[in-house]
Amino acid sequence: MTATVVVLGVVASAVLIVMLLRRGRAPSIQEVIRLIENRINHGMSKEWDYFRLVTIKDKHLNAIRERCLALDYSPPDERERELKKILDELRKAAG
User: Fold this and answer.
1) Taking a C-beta distance cutoff of 8 angstroms, is the pair 15, 31 a contact?
2) What is the spatial distance between Cα 36 and Cα 39, in angstroms, rounded to a whole number?
3) Could you tell me the CA-to-CA distances from 42 to 26, 59, 94 in Å, in that order?
């Protein structure tokens, strides 16, 4: 039951992010946090591909996107460690 709820939550947030990116609306800091959490916990996905490929209008979040993009080519341990650092930064910025 719990696993089903978690999977449904991941799918719902992923669909939301894809819809936002396709419409040209910049994702919020909370949406970027969820996307990075999903990347760490579940690996590559279509949502991550959209995040990597679509420029975000907000300069700070776009810089985060670019950092994440560069990490896709790093060793897995380093990538996860750096993504967690980015998450900490975003959570502090979100208050």
Assistant:
1) no
2) 5
3) 23, 27, 23
Q: List, for residues 24-83, the tens digit of each pLDDT value.
A: 677 899 999 999 999 999 988 899 999 988 899 999 999 999 999 999 899 999 999 999
Nearest to 17 by CA among 4, 26, 8, 7: 26
Region 7-23: what's the mean pLDDT? 58
Radius of gyration of the chain (CA): 13
Residue 86 · residue 29 · CB < 8 Å? no
- The two three-digit tokens of residue 15, written as one number: 């669909």
Asked if 45 contacts 38 with a C-beta cutoff of 8 angstroms, the reply is: yes
* Reported pTM: 0.72
How many angstroms separate the CA atoms of 78 and 80, rounded?
A: 6
